[in-house]
UniProtKB/TrEMBL annotation:
GO terms for molecular function: muconolactone delta-isomerase activity. It comes from Chimaeribacter californicus. The lineage of its organism: Bacteria, Pseudomonadati, Pseudomonadota, Gammaproteobacteria, Enterobacterales. The keyword Cytoplasm does not apply. It comes from the Bacteria. This is Muconolactone Delta-isomerase.
Length: 96
């Protein structure tokens, strides 16, 4: 199941830089592990914003929820999720 996920990050201004840097490093490792597993298919920076648009490929809504709620930056994110399906004009032979 494919989902578009938009994440907007709002780190509190009073968070110490060392704390924020540690959480960001944990976030990067978490994200890259999921990318290596093929579950986090794409991640794109939204130009001009501390936000990303990502594509996830998971087995269920529950799996997506568990992955997203495990993000180290989750407490500081606004997240929106949209389920995806094949576009009838797509020339791709599969959903990759
Ligand atoms: O968009 C961001 O910077 C938040 C984020 C999600 C995965 C990651 O590595 O950073």
């Amino acid at each position: 199941m494919l989902f578009k996920v938009e994440m907007t990050i709002n780190i509190p201004l009073d968070m110490p830089k060392a704390t924020a840097d540690k959480i960001k490093a944990e976030e990067k490792a978490y994200s890259q592990a999921l990318q290596e597993q093929g579950k986090w298919r794409h991640i794109w920076r939204v130009a001009g914003s501390y936000a990303n648009v990502s594509i996830f490929d998971v087995e269920s809504n529950e799996e997506l929820h568990n992955l997203l709620s495990g993000l180290p930056l989750y407490p500081y994110m606004e997240i929106s999720v949209a389920p995806l399906c094949r576009h009838p004009s797509s020339i791709q032979s599969d959903d990759r």
